[in-house]
Amino acid sequence: MTQSPARTQSFAVKFALLALAAMFAASLSSALPAHASKRKSAHRRAIVSTRHRYRHYYRGVPTYMADPAIGDDSRFDDPIVRQAALDAIGRQNGSVVAVDPSTGRILTIVNQKLAYSAGFEPCSTTKPIIAVAALEKGIVTPDTMIKVGRRRYMDMTEALAHSNNNFFEELGRRLGFDTVWHYDHVFGLGERAGYDITGEQPGFLPAKPPVRGGVARMCSFGEGIKITPLQLAAVVSTIANGGTMYYLQYPETESAAQDFAPRVRRTLPIAPLLPGLRQGMLAAVLYGTARLSNDPEGEQTLGKTGTCNDETKGGRLGWFASYADQEHPKLVLVVLLRGGARIVNGPHAADVAGKIYHDLYQHNYFADKTGDQPVTVAASSER
């Protein structure tokens, strides 16, 4: 079909206009200064490099595993607690440690390889220790308001509930490194928490302030500290029971399980200080960073979350340290999650613990935990 002369002319005009536009764009590009072109190329390289570093940073730290409990020796675990922990953590790359705070008896350890590792940055789970130090030294009271923003103030309850870093960094500056180190040491950091537990490691407590952030960041993120799930379980057990630090014991033989007796490591005179601390840990569960662990119909829990980067092998860390029943503590749970996904954080670790508590409540586990306290053996020396 033959096109009309007018239509042919229209196509020619459009083609000419497109050619002129292309020529103008080419001349404009060539007119750009050489350094501008270099900046653009450098920017593109920076983007690529950042993406490469991001992938490298998280490489080798999977968020999920085929079976995090593979290789565990669970012969003498509490079967109900262990099954609840296994169901809650699923295939997530993490560990669960459950302890009886009235005896130091370990009820289960899911992913023992991770629990017995050299330790990880504790993130915000060190804040309860700093709170105890500040209260005992008279730096603050539970009602002291500290400036945490331009026009924002918080007391200890709200700071623990929302894990406010500025609040605890200010406490660290007021306490000083020597005092912070002393309280971290008294609560067992840098030492093995267990009594003859094969493979347990002592973590690490720095002898001087960390280069990045000094004592302030040490009190908000646990900078420079390496803590194991066992050590954190011992810390929370001591807070839960009113100040008695037991050696954690994990029977590895039939006779050790049958002849179990608690062993006191040390006694801390912190009972008068604990109401203010516990109020903050309770607030964290009721409406703060740990609210995913809350079960309104189940056992009341108290806890502290922690989220930070994994400085050991890259990725992220999510901690949650908690205990059930403020009046008569029956169970301490420490959940540690690792991986590169954004879901790896303290609130999600709290969610895992909440599922465990709920499962145990449904099985009447807490109602069955009554009776006389076992005989306590005083340890003559620390290990």
Concise description?
This protein has 383 residues and is α+β, with helices and mostly antiparallel strands. Helix content is 42%, strand content 15%. The chain has a five-stranded antiparallel β-sheet with strand order 2-1-9-8-7, sandwiched between helices.
* Low-confidence runs of at least 5 consecutive residues: 1-9, 11-15, 28-32, 35-40, 42-58
> Per DSSP, what share of the residues sits in E-state strands of 2 or more residues?
5-15%
How many β-strands, per DSSP?
A: 10
What's the CATH superfamily of the largest domain, by name? DD-peptidase/beta-lactamase superfamily
CATH topology tier name of the largest domain: Beta-lactamase
Largest sheet: 5 strands, antiparallel
Rg over CA atoms: 28 Å
Give the name of the CATH architecture of the largest domain.
3-Layer(aba) Sandwich
The strand line-up of the biggest sheet is: 2-1-9-8-7
Helix content: 40-55%
Principal-axes shape call: globular
The topology string of helices and strands comes to HHHEEHHEEHHHHHEHEHEEEHE
CATH class division of the largest domain: Alpha Beta
**Structural class determined from secondary elements:** alpha+beta
What is the residue-averaged pLDDT?
Answer: 87
Number of helices in the DSSP assignment: 13
Ends distance: 99 Å
Descriptive notes:
It is built from 13 helices and 10 strands. With 383 residues, it is an alpha+beta fold. The protein folds into 2 domains: 5-54; 65-378, 3-Layer(aba) Sandwich (Beta-lactamase). It has a 5-stranded antiparallel sheet, sandwiched between helices. The protein has a 3-stranded mixed sheet with strand order 5-6-10. Strands 3-4 form a two-stranded antiparallel ribbon. The longest helix has 27 residues, at 5-31.
